[in-house]
Amino acid sequence: MQVLYEDNHIIIINKAPGEIVQGDKTGDEPLVETLKTWLKEKYNKPGNVFCGVVHRLDRPVGGVVVFAKTSKALSRLNDMFRNGQVHKTYWAISRNRPPKSEDTLTHYITTIERNNKSYASLNPKSGAKEARLSYRHIASSERYHLLEVNLMTGRKHQIRVQLSSIGCPIKGDLKYGDKRSNPDGSISLMARHIEFEHPVSHQLISVTAPVPDDTLWQVLADNVQS
To answer: Is the pLDDT at 112 greater than 80, yes or no?
Structure first.
């Protein structure tokens, strides 16, 4: 487990693809429980350790995840995420180059829990939620393209389904139209950067996760034009 930032109120972790943030029906140990054990041991704390889940990443996605170490921080961070006061930047790899070098996408997303899949429509539908993101094509290799994505809403599988809808399924994401899985079961999407005002001290918190230790990710990151 890699800690990217920690103070008395919050801790920010670089989640590995394959880890779950919160418990689910698989029964696998979630990251929040691993973190509680780590905090208990590090600070030699008696009894239960408080660690609040503020937001989640899909299991096959890696990158920045924020947890709250106090109830005050959890309550305020929940409000900040809900009100769009937290700026999240993702990197995604696709085999296809997007139709425009940068664009803002608006769709209406319906999620079917039965198959754990979201569907995007260009037109409003009953029960669908508006989903908005902006993307920018920032690098290419011989066969792949790297997109930087900024979320304006937080819908289930939003980046995955919206990029797929413009012909750019994320590498390894069979659920949303890519041709082949990644060997480790991940998809080539990472929560690269997060920025927000600290819920207690009000300082600017700006944290970037390192690019995965993978040749393709490294090549594309090296090709990014600032």
So the answer is: yes
Per-residue 3-state assignment (H helix, E strand, C coil) for the chain = CEEEEECCCEEEEEECCCCCCCCCCCCCCCHHHHHHHHHHHHCCCCCCCCCEECCCCCCCCEEEEEEECCHHHHHHHHHHHHCCCCEEEEEEEECCCCCCCEEEEEEEEEEECCCCEEEEECCCCCCCEEEEEEEEEEEECCCCEEEEEEECCCCCCHHHHHHHHCCCCECCCHHHCCCCCCCCCCCCEEEEEEEEECCCCCCEEEEECCCCCCHHHHHHHHHCCC
Model confidence band, residue 13 (pLDDT cutoffs 50, 70, 90): very high
With contact defined as beta carbons under 8 Å apart, do 163 and 39 qualify? no
Please give the backbone phi and psi of residue 11, each rounded to the nearest 5 degrees, phi first: -140, 135
Least Cα distance to 109 among 53, 73, 162 occurs for 162
In residues, how long is the chain?
A: 226
